[in-house]
Amino acid sequence: MPSLNIELVTIGTELLLGFTIDTNAAFLGQVLSAAGVRIVRRTSVADEPGQIRAAVAEALARSGFAITTGGLGPTRDDMSKHVVAELLGMPLQFDDVVWQAVLTRYQRFGRRPVASNRSQAMVPAGGVALPNQWGTAPGLWLDSPLGTVIMLPGVPLEMRMLMEHEVLPRLAARATGTAIRSATLRTCGIPESTLAERIGDLEDALAPLTLAYLPSVTGVDLRLTAWDVVAADAATLLRAGIDRLRAIAADWAYAEGDTDLAAVVLDQARASARRLAVAESCTGGLLGGRITNVAGSSDVFLGGVVAYDDRVKQELLEVPAALLAAHGAVSAEVAAAMVAGATARFGSGIAVSVTGIAGPGGGTAEKPVGTVWFGFSCDGRVDTQTSVFGGTRAEIRERAVQGALMGLWQRLQ
Amino acid sequence: MPSLNIELVTIGTELLLGFTIDTNAAFLGQVLSAAGVRIVRRTSVADEPGQIRAAVAEALARSGFAITTGGLGPTRDDMSKHVVAELLGMPLQFDDVVWQAVLTRYQRFGRRPVASNRSQAMVPAGGVALPNQWGTAPGLWLDSPLGTVIMLPGVPLEMRMLMEHEVLPRLAARATGTAIRSATLRTCGIPESTLAERIGDLEDALAPLTLAYLPSVTGVDLRLTAWDVVAADAATLLRAGIDRLRAIAADWAYAEGDTDLAAVVLDQARASARRLAVAESCTGGLLGGRITNVAGSSDVFLGGVVAYDDRVKQELLEVPAALLAAHGAVSAEVAAAMVAGATARFGSGIAVSVTGIAGPGGGTAEKPVGTVWFGFSCDGRVDTQTSVFGGTRAEIRERAVQGALMGLWQRLQ
Lengths: 413, 413
Description:
The structure is a homodimer of 413-residue chains. Helices cover 41% and strands 27% of the residues of chain A. The first copy, chain A, has 413 residues and is α/β, with parallel strands linked by helices. Chain A folds into 3 domains: 4-172, MoaB/Mog-like domain (Molybdenum Cofactor Biosythetic Enzyme, Chain A, 3-Layer(aba) Sandwich); 178-256, Alpha-Beta Plaits, CATH 3.30.70.2860; 261-412, Maf protein (Alpha-Beta Complex). The interface between A and B is large, with 106 and 104 residues.
């Protein structure tokens, strides 16, 4: 039995101009897939009535079911509701319940609604307004002879909350019993084509699962997908498939699912009852930020020193001035001194240091932009390693954070 | 004279499943708009021949010009090239020049090409292979009776480099003399609908410029766009429009363009020859990470202490244990003590501290999740302020970073 097929239409001139990254589309893809709904196409159009109308009409003609995001706000560039109401033949009517909700929300924040907020209480006749406690524009569920259109605001928090609380429960009523299920094996430190060569003919043996390679700044994810199968079968198939991939990529496979490498390292440290501290130069705090993005990190992570200026490396991490002068801040010697200093300062069983040249300036022939030295300290043993990362300043810093975590992962296994 | 109209087709099952965020689309939107090319629609489809063929054929029928991303890699789920070559009637031929480039690239990294890499040297007959020094899959420029298709790899670095070095120079040859130009005024601390009320009828007076409100976790950007105008006229129009918006939103407008608030604060500090240090608890290093993401921040930013554990607050920032016990770590008193400690530790003229409850756990009726206290120190004067932020753990932390920077911006004006 096939999944329910849906098309997404994301609306906003800014999406096409590229000033907004379409994170809503990614979120919708994930939650809809998990609910057994298959997104067969995504279309993005500008805030122009003709474009919006054409995109929604075409999506309905192909699939009979569309979800739109954007164009429901109080400002003038928001026109999706008017266009879709007209397309579906459902004229807009003032809805007193929605208006009261808008008024209540404004009262709660001690503000008065402005005239433009009144337009947010207009609901297409015969449609269902989906209450929005997280903003003023309600979502809409519109069943019509042309098909079903679900309209959601473009503000990510509001869109996510409406999906979770209003849309997914209603979609469940239309579910077909099958699902699309995926499982991911996350790797770091091996190139995509080398992975693909190692996997080789195994790909055929994985059928009916499909395999996708997802390279990113932090590594290559291997994603297996089971399409249109009963959920219980999917779980068994995926478990067996991931185990086969794991056997091939054991040295680089640090996690499954969307588990972050930082969470894995925290678990390793927790299991051995050791605390973690960091000393960062070129990453400027991003490593600590990544670690503490994991909820519950506080039982392992003590803290860190952001030693951006060399004086801070000397004063807070006891790196000798002579060492800095002799080898430069980006060197094995200084990385080792930084991590030893952090271990002493925080009294932690585990510590890591990062010092490098993130660019765009500061590179030399000997130490090009992207050169990063790491120091690792486990139970008093200090060692160092180096990498030369490519990409922009932001990418080099992100790769350096991942490199520091990967180094910890290897040493804590 | 109208701009050149183009459609984007981004290819990848992962885009629809939501496991990849389509950052390529945003990048292409920005660079193409700046080059006077108008993206009229963006379509995303799965790695399925029928879907790819339909999306490219429809885009060509509407616009005569399509750019695709994705599906050019060495793995089996990459099939875009085969489908488009067939659609355009340009059969694939082995290209020796491309193959030599693949071999050279592998030699440089000390690796041997695998069999699947040979498929990357197949080029549609009559098409132009765009050399890719940043990966193994060349881009393709395909002129056909159905229209022009430019095919780019999906790996962001390779796509960006091919656009810059190969595609944009060729597109310039087709440019029409007009351009789409935008200008942005960035605000923080004022809700979208309040901003819209203040702007009100001014929006009509801004014509022919169009105005868009772009709310995000860190504030609301106001974006003015001049469509299809001569570049010199656009600059004058946009300057006048931004000045009018600035007059209305002066208290919240911290920058223009894509300038980050961190860069503005660094400039303020630099202008007064003062150095900056940070003391972070709930943000765990993200504030230092945001500041050091600005290239050249090292002449202002000294560094910071990530005092995630209360022991670190005591030992590195001299926060008295009694103060922590009496008021809790998330309090005005501790924020003040943290920033005073950072000022003393780093000897900086300016410092900021952040301590809060990022959640999901740890909230109480008195101090709910999202409660954040900031401490500010300028030339020895210390003051504090508090906010309660909404959203996920990651959003609360991002808002806390922006709040710390906004507090500095206000105090340094």
